[in-house]
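User: Hi! I'm working on a homework problem where we have to compare a predicted structure to a textbook description. Could you give me the structure for the chain below?
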Amino acid sequence: MPFFRFFSNDIAIDLGTANTLIYMKGKGIVLNEPSIVTFDVDTKKIVAIGNEAKKMVGKVHKELNTIRPLRDGVIADFEMAEGMIKEFIKKITSSFMPARRIVVCVPSGITEVEKRAVRDTAEHAGAKEVHLISEPMAAAIGIGLDVTAPSGSMIVDIGGGTTEIAVITLSGIANNVSIRIAGDELTDAIVRFFRNNQNILIGETTAEEIKCQVGSVMPLPDGEIRFEVKGRDLVAGVPKYTEASTVEIREALNAPVQQMIEAVKVALEKTAPELSADILEKGIFLTGGGALLKGLDERIRMETGVPVHVAEDPLTAVARGTGKVLEDLNLYRKVMLKR
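Assistant: Happy to help. Predicted structure tokens:
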């Protein structure tokens, strides 16, 4: 038995719109790469995945195409998603030992058809047994909350494609709100700002960098700054430098951020009084890449009157939780999604 356990390739996958993280049983997180694929347009053969493919975004020639096979937290391109998962698994396991069991986390608002697509993709990638868990539940487990207790905990998981808000108690989700407005929408808002206000087209990668480095939803404590941006002039059609300020970026981000906060308020309104009392005492927990947006915790606290905590290492919370479920499937059987 120990011999087989040594060679077991049971894995947990946080299959995200922006990044894919893989946790291997007994080893922890062994892969964290962008969910991006570059493939040959004619043959559909995958040329690059993950970090390598990310370097090619916006820079490929006409014979190649770079895509993200997941959109809004669900599989948009079945064939490429399957190929990407297979290639990621190949990176971390010996080729003669396919993954036997796979636990995959999915958005809480996923449909039955989308669930089937995830199961099929994992099975085609070689899994003999596939288990699904919702992202907010995995995030709660990942940050160390006791999800089995008769006590309410609110998780707000802001990924690339979806913002998942859930109240968890007794190994289940008491209520949840899932909106397809998250990190990608924030990036798009920055692209739109430069297009509409400065007649400049900037790439997704540039917008992402601006969001991560200077994006904020509250005035910056150290003062506002101006910075330089490179793009293409939409009138003259030539490359051009322009300037923007953190104030302008904050205004650009305001609409999608407000929609996220409204969703949090809706979830709080739907919560039973006893669970609401628990949330007021414990606070709201933010996970996912969006939790790192400067001032977001303060803004939610201001608008809801509830304490807000940003989880430690919010980017890996879901993957860590999915990994904990993989390590003890029997203990967490109740929290997994039914077939």
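For your comparison, note the following. The chain has eleven helices and 18 strands. Confidence is low (pLDDT under 50) at residues 1-7. Good luck with the assignment!
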